Give the backbone structure.
Amino acid sequence: MVDRPKLGVLALQGAFREHAEALRRLGADVIEVRLPVELIELDGLVIPGGESTTILRLARLYGLDDAIRSFSRPIFGTCAGMIVLDRAHLGLADLEVERNAYGRQLASFEAALELEGESDPFPGVFIRAPRISMVGQDVEVLAELDGAPVLLRDGRILVAAFHPELTDDGRVHERFLRLVADAVGNRHASTVPATRGSNGV
């Protein structure tokens, strides 16, 4: 496992600087991603909140949509980033999302969220937040708001309907870093040659 994972934050539009700062506080090396070639050496990728239509349009323009579809490492999408990853768009997360379902900018709010496996609430910041309307059977719900899922994991994909990068609480980003660490450990383990027995096999 690497001590300092190399992570990318998609920097086409939205709150990418805040994600980068949150990850650096947790000890990661972070680059801003704007071109497909910048994905090659990454251990993980964050797709931030912003305007999903703009992010998708620019991703297509720069060839990043197909590059992200082919990216095999962990991905964390927040707010608009969650929309980008859903069934109707890049198709990497097995869920369906309604845009701006919690209201427009003036309806933004903060809510205390109970994270799966933790007793202390997390300050969820919701800004023009999307709502998850359909979840695949293998998707794990990690937090809810009024019975609706707002933090989920689908294998190597983590998604949030809120903005953890706008708080000083690093626990959601820590969950993503654990996904990255597990993936890096598995990659390294798969390259270690099998120990030979006394018969040379």
In short: The helical segments are 16-25, 52-61, 64-70, 80-85, 171-191. The first strand starts at residue 6 and ends at 10.
